[in-house]
Amino acid sequence: MDMDSKNTFTDVLEKAIEDSDPNTPIFFILSPGADPVKEVEKICKKQKIEPGKGFFSMALGQGMDEIAKRRIEEGNKEGHWIMLENIHLMPTWLLELEKILDAYQAEAGAGNQHFKLFLSADPSPNIPIGIMDRSIKLTNEPPQGLKANMKRAWTYFPREEIDDKDPKVKSILFALCFFHSTMIERRRFGPKGWNMMYPFSIGDLRDSYLVLNKYMESN
Prior knowledge:
By secondary structure, the chain is an alpha/beta fold. It has helices at 9-19, 36-46, 65-78, 91-106, 129-134, 146-155, 159-162, 167-186, 202-218; strands at 26-29, 55-59, 81-85, 116-121, 136-138. It has two domains: 9-138, P-loop containing nucleotide triphosphate hydrolases (Rossmann fold), CATH 3.40.50; 146-218, Helicase, Ruva Protein, domain 3, CATH 1.10.8.720. It contains nine helices and five strands. Helix 1 (9-19) packs across helix 2 (36-46), helix 6 crosses helix 8 (167-186) and helix 8 (167-186) runs antiparallel to helix 9 (202-218).
């Protein structure tokens, strides 16, 4: 799905969620700096869906296959939103996931119609074509250039959330956004920028802001 200059990624994601149904997962193709979990959580907050009650997110890895399967079954029955992160780490189990989705499609209307499935993965040839074909595919690549990254980072925070903050908090948050944007931009230079390809996701920026608030409140 393409995103024009007038729409934010959140706008596009909200539209994708409206277009999806229990048999149409939303598939996030991961890119540096993106954190789809935070984007889904923002929409959950708008729709009053509580994490841990109506929205469940889990990162896949060794030993997570049965847990993920159980979450999907519960979600399909209860109408939960389920997000499976980094599914490319379990390519063998994805064949079973494809069969689960095929079974749900064959029983269309049998499950809870509020059920949503979100998937995320690095670009990988090991993702079954059946999963890709049935999904709405989204990606949110960081813009090119320090100025564009800075604008993206600063506008991530709702204006009403920071307008009433102490001026010191606003100044430090601006510095955090500048630091974050610099990190993202330097990734383009590979080993000349950093020895390790850390993602520096928007979630890292958000968590830094939360730490900032806690520090300022306690001092």
